Amino acid sequence: MPENVLEVRGLRRTFGAVRAVDDVSFALPAGGSLGVVGESGSGKTTTARIVVGLERADGGEVLVRGRSRTARGRTGGRVGGRVGGRAARLARAREVQMVFQDPYLSLDPRTGVEAALRETLRLHFPGRDHTRRVRELLDQVGLGTRAAEALPRQLSGGQRQRVAIARALAVEPAVLVLDEAVAALDVSVQAQILNLLADIREQTGIGYLFITHDLGVVRCVTDEIVVMRHGAVVEQGRTEEVLAAPGHPYTRLLLESVPRPGWDPQAIAAARRAL
Predict the structure, then answer these.
(1) Are 161 and 250 found together in one domain?
(2) 101 with 202, same domain?
(3) Which end of the chain is less crowded, N or C, counting CB atoms within 10 A of the terminal residue's CB?
(4) Is there a single domain that holds both residue 90 and residue 167?
């Protein structure tokens, strides 16, 4: 298997006159954890959606395990009509899964936990008995059998995010994209989910792509970091090195924007205008 489980090369995506993603490139090693950070509108979420296949790319390439998985629109890449297109999308989904910020919106409110996991497993692995696998997934994310029949509204925010993670892990993907996956949770619950993700990475060797604006999360859970602004990468490198000695003014501004004793929001606003 290639050393890099995910490679993004020269990605571009425009919406009218706006360059949402502008020549973005990075690599995620197998079993690694890469953070993509930036403010709202920086292009980080659009990049993530292209990687997963929810958005098409105007240019560039996404490679997973050395194979091109670049989405070129709804009709691109079809083989033999709709069946080939569906097969290609399922193949991509088995390699790259995504966990969203709000698990309540990503889960069917009418479907219980076990049924949701079974539905995913039947879609990707039809004709099998998935009872044992469902139990394994519940145990893996720290949910017992008592949660198996619960509906999303009967669970806490942290429990719902555990269900979303279990559903993503069901197909044993090579890459898990986490788009602000702990931003909507209380701080104590955030720590629990981040510890869970660290344990899963250690056990499975899965690669993580963290999309976040939270530098605290990036510092704790990533090996490398990519900083985006206005759709372009302005800085990247080892997380501890970039955060300890940022080389780009925008990265320094992000670090200085984190509230702390002596923090001066007016000075931050002036620095932002100057940049």
Answers:
(1) no
(2) yes
(3) N
(4) yes
The tally of domains found in the chain comes to: 2
Domain check: are 149 and 263 in the same one?
no
The range of the structural domain enclosing residue 250 comes to 245-275
pTM above 0.85, yes or no: yes
Per-residue pLDDT of the chain (275 residues), as tens digits, is 458 999 999 999 999 999 999 999 999 999 999 999 999 999 999 999 999 999 999 999 999 999 998 866 544 443 333 333 777 788 888 899 999 988 778 899 999 999 999 999 999 999 889 999 999 999 999 998 888 999 999 999 999 999 999 999 999 999 999 999 998 888 899 999 999 999 999 999 999 999 998 898 899 999 999 999 999 999 999 999 999 999 999 999 999 888 778 777 888 888 778 88
Is residue 116 located within the same domain as residue 12? yes
